[in-house]
């Protein structure tokens, strides 16, 4: 249920980050406006860490934020323009546009909350919040390298070992921007494709390798053999992803599934239906977004398929924390109501 407020959600164009920001806005009870933003170059991003430590909020380091600030004033007459043949210089006109736009934003209840997720938005969130009188900025993920005390609220994953500060709210899993309507539509779309039984559904969600995980045909074959042996008589369903290697996809395709979605052949998304209908879900351990969704929604037992490389990296900490809390290798679901209550307090809502 949203109130009359509206958040400005800064997006770096990464779907995983944008979806977490949307989820945060909805959890705060706010509608939102998306504003794309990025640093002008890696050098400008590096400068942002120094500027932040010095208390400098320079929107000139960014593409998107300054455009947003100027947008409402760009096509309006500017007060203070010279008359009788005298023209303002370009710099004077630009400054006047900025002042006009800032005045149009100041005091509007719909523009009092700035939200960002990921390192491409942290500095921008602070900078824009300073431009709007009374605005608060809240970010998701841990803004390592930036001055933590000058964010109003930080939703930080536990696996990042965040500092214990009053404005830091720890969360065990990624935020998921889905709701009941999203899952209802997902189940309905899935049932148009699959008319089989769903009372004993077991789902398998296959991601792909990254810098902290691997995925080979040999490893996958061992996992699939174990899954089929442990779930005899079940309706076994599977989906691969855009990150799944071609040889692993071919192996998955060769097994006798009740339903299969091979991403290289079909981009339909059956995961909402898997989450809602399955009694058990197997998810490759590097798929933090899918693990978070499976551990938050539905009622399935969630099992992480361990394809992680050795070492104390954040993917391993993520899975181990979920397991210790009973979300992985168990049926307990993530409840962030207490964290969102604290976030609303920090954001003055």
SSE topology:
Layout: E1 6-11, H1 15-27, E2 31-36, E3 38-39, H2 42-53, E4 62-63, H3 65-74, H4 90-105, E5 113-117, H5 122-131, E6 136-140, E7 153-157, E8 168-171, H6 180-193, E9 201-205, H7 217-230, E10 235-239, H8 246-253, E11 259-261, H9 271-277, E12 280-284, H10 288-296, E13 301-305, H11 314-324, H12 337-346
Parallel strand pairs: 1-2, 1-5, 5-6, 6-7, 7-8, 9-10, 9-12, 10-11, 12-13
Antiparallel strand pairs: 3-4
Helix pairs in contact: 3-4, 6-9, 7-8
Structure write-up:
The chain has 349 residues and is α/β, with parallel strands linked by helices. The protein folds into 2 domains: 175 residues, no CATH class; 145 residues, Rossmann fold (3-Layer(aba) Sandwich), CATH 3.40.50. The protein is built from 12 helices and 13 strands. β12, α10 and β13 form a beta-alpha-beta unit. The longest helix has 16 residues. 43% of the residues are buried. About 11% of the residues have low confidence.
